[in-house]
Write a structure and sequence with these properties.
Length: 356
Amino acid sequence: MSHSLNVTVMVDAGTISPDDPEFTAEPQTTTEGHVVAALRELGHRVGVLGVDDCLAEIVGSLTEHPPDIVFNLAEQFRNDRRLDMNVPALLEMMDVRFTGTGPAGLMLCRDKGLCKQLLSLHKIRVPDFLVLEPGQSIRVPKRIQYPVLVKPLYEDASDGIAMASLVKNESELLERARFVHERWDQVAIAEQYIEGRELYVSVLGNDRLTVFPPREIRFGNAGKGGPIIATSRVKWNEQYRQKWNIEYGFAELPEAVFAKVARVCKRVYRLLQLRDYGRIDLRLTPEGRIFILEVNPNPGIAYGEDYAESAEKAGVGYNRLIDRILRLALRRYEPAPIAAHVKTPRTSAAANVAGV
């Protein structure tokens, strides 16, 4: 970045430690701390603003201390992830520049059923699925083949996903759906389990998109009773991963397969209106078919996690990655060039080609 900016990093209030409200301690161990540290190392003046349930405090802070740009890391409002879209909506109404996907893209990706419907409409493969509303009678279509994964419709980060989420028949499906309704107080979605490699594909950009080397989760003991899906324990419990020989690493793909994966992920990114950076989770079947599992706007960008690791593999170090996200966001707010509409007399084709 050519000059120092006033950057407000918006975070979930629960991530702020009372002992370190400005994320100044070293070393930092969270996404929020990593991003704040990188921005400071890049020479920016950084403030932290927590998002909880008090709209007036957020508006007041942004009004009294207007930033050049907000680096938006907030994932909820009022402790409800379904309201995450309202954070950038508020910033838009206040005419405050911010990084990452806007309210429309967040809405399309938050509702897993709507997301899959839209992708299906555009001939992009997704698992067969069924949305299960609380309090309604459920009829499972014959097209749904078991095993089926049942999870909350609006959560992310594998919340609500356990080995019990993978069901083998209709009675198990209905039981798990009721559990989701009661435990998570929301709609459930049941989607067909897809056999294959699970890849995490990180994308950066707006007008031009860069697809970083994909990451892959390898279920080492899948045939010995171990997990075959990325449950919450798989994602967040290192000892559990060691027990079942589960590893994250880079996917080794033939050039033609990577090109196909990149092409599909770019389409998904644009269709769902992601901006600046995003991650697409998919399954690649033994036959080479691609099924989109999840689409993640504003994914986790902690140092050492999948997105940052993929960028590093492509030669984009962590501070440079944060700088590029900031640059991409700022560029979106630059005035569009005004095209010159000059009427010229109709002459010969040769004259037109020559620009006369």
